[in-house]
């Protein structure tokens, strides 16, 4: 969904207007707001993108990230939190390679448990 990624990457979202022309507006809860079909589609895309990003996070992180109002703000925070810089990524990759190189089955675990542990390491490489 290119439109959703555009919202995340470029912030192409509906912005509530500060000054409106009363001739082009509708009254909603005492506020005058001008809303076009294009604006509604932008808002819908932003909500979809934000929801998609939130649902991709683990449950333990959702409350912390749910305070961000737009998909672009949320994405920037996710990148800052989980992205890391190049040195961090390199260190993590080296650690995973070391874990892979030193991998061996524990005496008390089943073959399936050993395989699952190995798959976790391999999937992160």
Automatic annotation (TrEMBL):
It holds the Pfam family Retrotran_gag_2. This is Ribonuclease H-like domain-containing protein. The lineage of its organism: Eukaryota, Viridiplantae, Streptophyta, Embryophyta, Tracheophyta.
